[in-house]
Write a structure and sequence with these properties.
single chain, 192 residues, mainly alpha, Rhomboid-like fold, globular
Length: 192
């Protein structure tokens, strides 16, 4: 019988997930001061270099274990297949683009609140996954259904529910994922 071995199958997804876990633990150990300083975004002086860093690093910070696990469940479920299909570089671009756009939009529209967490990235991966069978000239019904179910719920919740969830980040992440799915799969299909 062959020995079973554990493989590091999706390096970007695994490193991203480990970084999120480490940052969340660091936040707990520092009374969230590290999270506020480096791993959440909010409107701050444009002369502060950390303002620009936080536009990307806010996706690593989480408000606690429940928040972290909720996001990592989707990222660890969907990420490896996407990393295999599109490659780690393309997936990294999706993550960074999602972080940057959600950070900028949040800072412009919600200057008095902070944003942290990888839920925008999770939604980007959900919509990107729905495009895996996309071919130019076709619009798979699954893409429409995923957009209606996931993005529709976020729009509805954004209008009707008052909580600490950034539904706008979910919608923006979903749009980034859909845009990436369309761009990566147009013409003859995706090739690494």
């Amino acid at each position: 019988m062959k020995k079973l071995r554990i493989t590091f199958n999706a390096p970007l997804v695994l490193w991203f997930s480990l970084a999120c876990a480490a940052v969340t633990l660091l936040g707990t150990l520092t009374g969230e001061s590290s999270t506020a300083l480096l791993f959440s975004t909010y409107r701050a002086s444009l002369t502060d270099p950390l303002t620009y860093v936080r536009l990307f690093t806010h996706v690593l910070g989480h408000s606690g274990l429940t928040h972290l696990v909720g996001n990592m469940a989707y990222i660890l479920l969907l990420g490896p297949a996407l990393e295999e299909k599109y490659g780690w570089k393309n997936l990294l671009v999706v993550i960074l683009t999602t972080a940057l756009i959600t950070g900028i939009v949040h800072n412009l529209l919600f200057p008095r609140t902070i944003l942290l967490g990888a839920s925008g990235v999770s939604f980007a991966l959900i919509l990107l996954t729905s495009f895996t069978e996309f071919r130019e000239g076709e619009l798979p019904l699954t893409v429409i259904l995923v957009a209606v179910i996931y993005l529709g719920q976020q729009v509805w919740d954004g209008i009707t529910v008052r909580d600490n969830v950034s539904n706008l980040s979910h919608v923006i992440g979903g749009l980034v994922g859909a845009g990436a799915g369309y761009m990566l799969n147009r013409k003859t299909g995706y090739r690494k």
